[in-house]
Structures are given as structure tokens and as C-alpha cells.
Amino acid sequence: MLGPGDRVPDIFVWRAPREAPVRLRELLAGGQALLAFYLFDWSPTWNGEAARGFGVAVSPLEMADVSRRSAFLIDGGDTVRAAWAYAGSELPDVDAILAAARAS
């Protein structure tokens, strides 16, 4: 899993369903961002490449590239500033994540 100081992978992501994918680094050029992964995201914007690139891909029940519940605070460039990972049914501490975002 990527951690603070690691560079964001050069991957494509979707901003919304039915839109063409864009480079994540292009999206991040506009300022800091919070990227969240969660289990069994089968939405049209799901991206196994992103889960692998951030090191949060798991294979429960023999399903490949399922995202582990996690979040990454990324600066306006391409560097991870903070990272959180959660086990099983553990829920993210949204207050801690927001406090980290406000402090950076």
C-alpha cells in the first residue's frame, strides 16, 4: 500500500459514469484530493488498475482486484500526503481524514 511520500501511480481513472477515463495526475493538478477505495465497488467508475497501483487490491472469494477499504490524501502534485487502511468491517474515521485534509 502506498504511504506518505510515495508518488501516485500513472493510471487512468473515471470521474463519472459514461465519461472517458483521464490520467489521475491530470486531475490532481488542480489541487489536493482525497481518493477513497471501498469493498466491492462495482460501479461504472470501478478501476482495478487504480486498486493495484495504490497497493490496495485484494482477492476475496477468488475475485481479482477488489479494493481494500482505504483512503489517500494527495497533494496538488503527485505525492501521497497521508494514507489510511481499514480491516474487514472497520469503518473509516472520517473526522481524522477531514482534519488531515484541512491541516495540509
List its traits.
Glutaredoxin; single chain; globular; 104 residues; 3 helices; two-stranded antiparallel ribbon
Distance between the termini: 21 Å
What integer is the average pLDDT? 85
Largest sheet: 3 strands, antiparallel
Please identify the top-level CATH class.
Alpha Beta
Q: Strand order of the main beta sheet, please?
A: 3-6-7
What form results from the Cα inertia axes? globular
What name does CATH use for the topology? Glutaredoxin
Rg from Cα: 13 Å
CATH architecture: 3-Layer(aba) Sandwich
* Regions with little confidence, pLDDT below 50 for 5+ residues: none
DSSP helical segment count: 3
Strand percentage: 15-25%
Structural class: alpha+beta
Q: What's the total count of β strands?
A: 7
CATH H-tier superfamily: Glutaredoxin
Number of domains in the coordinates? 1
Helix content bin:
10-25%
In sequence order, what are the helices and strands, one letter per element? EEHEHEEEEH
Structure description:
With 104 residues, the chain is α+β, with helices and mostly antiparallel strands. It has one domain (12-103): 3-Layer(aba) Sandwich (Glutaredoxin), CATH 3.40.30.10. It has three helices and seven strands. The strands form three sheets. Strands 3-6-7 form a three-stranded antiparallel sheet, with helices on one face. It has a two-stranded antiparallel ribbon with strand order 1-2. It has a two-stranded antiparallel sheet with strand order 4-5. The longest helix has 10 residues, at 94-103. The chain is globular.
